[in-house]
Amino acid sequence: MTPGPEAFAEAARGMTGAPFRWLGRDPRTGLDCLGLVAASLTAIGIAVPPLPRYAARIIAIDRLTALLPQVGLAPATGPDRIGDVLLLQPGPAQYHLAIRASPGTIVHAHAGLRRVTESPAPAPWPIVARWRLS
């Protein structure tokens, strides 16, 4: 049985304070937003396929979002729930992943603060898609 969304959210919370590193995949040396999702999934026992490299500004995110069903994440509808993966859009051709940690917070790899942080929600950017452990 796959651990549930609460375990996933707690795993993400456990990464709080990890350093930020562009394309980072290891909480000891640094994570970016995709690395945070992957490390949180790994922490609850879900195998994650190799992650693609990507640019800071991308128009097509299909290569990244195609990985989500492979790890048991399905498109979500309705209000956000704890453990949802949120795709945020901070600006044109910019995307950012965050994990809903509680009704009032998200966990994400914050480039400006240079670490993984738990921040108040809603995020300051629009949510353009959402996935949930199925």
From TrEMBL:
Q: May I ask which residue range the UniProt record assigns to the signal sequence?
A: none
Domain named NlpC/P60 is located at 2-134
Q: Name one GO molecular function term.
A: cysteine-type peptidase activity
GO annotation terms (biological process) = proteolysis
Identify the InterPro entries for this entry.
NLP_P60_dom, Papain-like_cys_pep_sf
Q: Which UniProt keywords apply?
A: Hydrolase, Protease, Thiol protease
Per UniProt, what is one Pfam family of this protein? NLPC_P60
Entry similarity comment: Belongs to the peptidase C40 family.
What is the recorded name of this protein? Peptidoglycan endopeptidase
Taxonomic source organism: Aurantiacibacter spongiae
Q: What is the lineage of its organism?
A: Bacteria, Pseudomonadati, Pseudomonadota, Alphaproteobacteria, Sphingomonadales
